[in-house]
Specification:
heterodimer, A: 246 residues, mainly alpha, 3-stranded parallel β-sheet, 3 strands, globular, B: 205 residues, alpha/beta, 6-stranded mixed β-sheet, 3-stranded antiparallel β-sheet
């Protein structure tokens, strides 16, 4: 744990500060550090994660942080993927400048399969693609890396929209095999029902940690890969898709 | 950044859609004629309408809306002549369509905006204490419609700060409009202290 993380942990474990104050104070501390070390890219990722915390949920600031990283290094895969997700999640599409960065990353023949998969997933978030391209990008995403959840979920959505419920269900089953952790958010959740759908990588049901420092790594697992998922989502999937209850 | 305080809700011919819903169930009724007659009648204020659909578009979209609502959604259309959303649940997602153009919002992305509530609005069950999710999603969509009807929506990032439910819980709705199309919406408990995009303070429904 580096010095910044220690400071952030102190802030986020405080019993005195409100959530907004914790975010504001952390933001101030990280910004101070960035003023003296403008090229520390890790700090931009920390800041981008901190400002996304509720109730501030400052997507604009978070996007600015990733844009700043990309001014230093246009080939920073994590920054491009995170920026794509921020744009898509906040505005519903990845903008054309970011799509160019994604395409440039794909030209790297030594790119790792997970990054390549996430780049294809991010390309599927463009608003300038047709249905055929949408399917293609998601299929490419799964072909390159089938070890996480969100690409399966998104392709399943496309098949449901086309009325192919069997394919939707098959993809959901494959997605659930990749779940690593389930956050317990509702007391009624029964893991015994879900267990048959989970794979070897499943590590258990845990409570949402409230003391953690917000990190990009957690955002990636929870929101981009979705290998850490909440029990409410699992219950809804079981009820609405696997058991086909109305 | 614009900060606009909206104290009142503007009722827009709600009686018209109610009348239409009742009449339209009668088999013998010529529905296209009804739409035309309502558009031509004195009680419809044409000055209030901007960029409405054609007679034929209105008829077709309303027919589709009735069909969708009969498929299992509890959520009924609000008004046929101003911005009107149809909202249906499909699997774990909600599907939003615009069935009548509004002031700024003329459509949704691809004509059909699909929102995975567990991924967006209710991620980590953050609205667990806000009660029924169908009601909350309907409330959010209705608030977007209200601010559009009041002419407060802008192309780009918009943010509604409002309250929800009997115990007045804070609710912040974020949505993005691109070229008159609603691209995305999300919601968060509590209010951000930041002014992100076009901020609208809205009285509860």
């Amino acid at each position: 744990m580096d010095n910044t993380d220690i400071i952030l942990k102190e802030i986020f474990t405080s019993d005195i500060l409100t959530k907004s104050q914790k975010i504001l104070k952390s933001e101030k501390k990280i910004t101070e550090k960035l003023n003296t070390n403008t090229t520390d890219l890790e700090l931009y990722f920390k800041l981008a994660a901190v400002v996304l915390e509720e109730p501030e949920v400052d997507f604009i600031k978070s996007m600015e942080c990733m844009e700043e990283v990309l001014t230093f290094d246009k080939t920073n895969k994590e920054a491009v993927i995170f920026l794509s997700w921020l744009q898509y999640f906040y505005r519903g599409y990845v903008n054309s400048d970011t799509l160019i960065l994604l395409d440039n990353l794909l030209k790297d023949i030594e790119i790792d399969p997970l990054s390549k998969s996430l780049i294809y997933l991010a390309k599927s978030w463009s608003d300038e693609i047709n249905e055929e391209q949408h399917f293609h990008f998601l299929e490419e995403s799964i072909k390159n890396d089938g070890t996480y959840v969100s690409n399966y979920f998104e392709l399943a959505n496309l098949y449901r929209a086309k009325g192919d419920l069997n394919k939707e269900q098959n993809l959901i089953i494959k997605a659930l095999k990749n779940v690593e952790k389930i956050y317990l958010v509702d007391e009624s959740f029964d893991i015994t029902v879900t267990k048959q759908y989970l794979g070897d990588c499943f590590k258990g049901v845990i409570n949402i940690p409230t003391y953690d420092i917000p990190t990009y790594e957690n955002i990636k697992k929870e929101s981009i890969l979705r290998t850490v998922i909440d029990s409410n989502t699992i219950s809804d999937i079981l009820e609405n898709i696997l058991f086909r209850k109305k | 950044m614009a900060m606009i305080l909206l104290f009142t809700v503007i009722p827009i011919h709600s009686f018209a859609s109610e009348n239409l819903s009742e009449e339209i169930t009668e088999e013998s009724f010529n529905q296209l004629e009804l739409v035309e007659s309502l558009l031509e009648s004195d009680f419809m204020n044409f000055k209030d309408m901007t960029d409405v659909l054609t007679y034929e578009e209105n008829f077709i979209t309303y027919q589709e809306n009735i069909h969708e609502n009969q498929e299992g959604s509890e959520i009924q259309p609000y008004n046929i002549f101003r911005l009107l959303f149809s909202l249906v649940k499909s699997g774990t997602n909600y599907i939003v369509k615009v069935t009548s153009k509004g002031k700024t919002i003329k459509n949704v992305r691809n004509g059909k905006l699909e929102v995975d509530v567990n991924k967006h609005i209710n991620a980590k069950n953050r609205f667990g204490k806000y009660g029924n999710m169908d009601k909350l999603v309907k409330y959010i969509v209705e608030d977007i419609r209200r601010v559009d009807a009041a002419g407060l929506v802008k192309n780009g990032d918009n943010s509604i700060k409002t309250i929800y439910g009997k115990d007045a819980k804070l609710l912040e709705i974020r949505f993005h409009v691109k070229n008159g199309e609603l691209y995305q919406f999300n919601a968060f408990p509590d209010h951000s202290k930041r002014e992100l995009g076009n901020v609208i303070y809205l009285a509860p429904q």
